[in-house]
């Protein structure tokens, strides 16, 4: 396999070859720990699948907060692209205030604003938002031109806060600020931790948790919430699917933080631990086995008999409902293979659901994950800082004098940590079989090459790859937007996922497609080195 991969890479110019080969590995437990290059600059000119820092801040973390007016300061395309395209669902609330998600707020910067500056336009936009919507908070998200022309969004936020007596938070998440969406997650986490978390003082119930890194895509968060509430947990806040700023203000009061997407919220999880003493637990509600494991781990953390019994009763009840249907789909999918390429956590999280259908993952990779998402958090001290990640503020906090408290005694913590790994994420590589391939920041050339090499039955990724894969005569399953389906989380979501995959694999469409390039080249000509 290594030889075949080398052949793919050898087509690159020498410098590109040297770079790209560090981003690919074949899993081999005997060579563990295996290192991969990640969170590094994409080579200019390569057709990457990545997005920008603004997308990670506004589109991913801040955007789903429904009770705030998130204004995109920039050209209209940036605001438009991040206007619910992610399918982060939200309800019109139960007494929380508002839901502004169906609006797209933007300063719609024009050439004249780029030349003369856009601060006045931004001030005007905030004024209009206050007048029309009277929100409790406003968030300003910067796009590329804002940083390039030097609009001071922090000064505007300070001015507006006084002028309108409303909280205004500025996020300097210019698209180019980092190498991918990932920098935007960090900037958003920092802003919410500094200005929102810890500002509330609502009383919280017994067994209170936050769900971090769950964005309610296709309703996943609602299914997770249903399970957790049935067992008896009090969910203080969700960061940030169907989430609200008002609830997030009390996040510091949780007894435990549940981390679904490690990449996008590990910063907040760690800051909450350092400042308030709250442990975090990596959970995963995608797939039946990991849903069972997550529910059991949470109950074990609190150690209350009632919670443990209710957890087991819920698991038994849900399994009885889904098993007959799952069996039907498993028969249709058994023996097929999958390749997964998704942002920063789902190429990991969806391997379980495929496995439960009898499908092996032959390739998996991330757009923008860091080495810890691949190799486990133990590598964090060894990750080299570079000019790009130094560019993003790294907040360091100590214990809060009044509000720091530990839920577990030291002995209890030590004992539990042996059973379930608290404040730790083991990464993706450890769950993968020997011989499977890991590719970081894949590009279009590599997608096509690996498709030809591995011939997976399904390629799970996003909209940018979908039609290239379909044109190759293979099923593409969107694991970002869920192809307008979902929820996929929890027991019932697993059945919907299984149904969708079985349906996609068995459709007769694939027999009818004969891509033109399977019978001959579609483009012919000579390669001319110099044009006179
Ligand atoms: Fe986390 Fe996400 Fe993902 Fe992500 Fe994303 Fe997403 Fe994703 Mo698209 S927060 S890293 S930045 S799980 S939007 S809900 S699907 S790339 S794998
Ligand atoms: C983003 C959002 C995205 C894009 C999905 C896709 C999402 O990265 O800005 O490429 O299909 O989930 O909506 O990841």
Describe the structure.
Keywords: ATP-binding, Iron, Iron-sulfur, Metal-binding, Nitrogen fixation, Nucleotide-binding, Oxidoreductase. Pfam families: Oxidored_nitro (PF00148). InterPro entries: Nase/OxRdtase_comp1, Nase_comp1_asu, Nase_comp1_CS. This is Nitrogenase protein alpha chain. This protein is an alpha/beta fold. It has a domain at 53-196: Rossmann fold, CATH 3.40.50.1980. The chain has 23 helices and 14 strands. It has a six-stranded mixed β-sheet, with helices on both faces. A four-stranded parallel β-sheet has the order 3-2-4-5, with helices on both faces. Helix 3 (53-62) crosses helix 9 and helix 6 (119-133) packs parallel to helix 8 (153-164). 3-hydroxy-3-carboxy-adipic acid (HCA) binds at residues 51, 55, 59, 85-86, 181, 343, 462-464, 480-481.
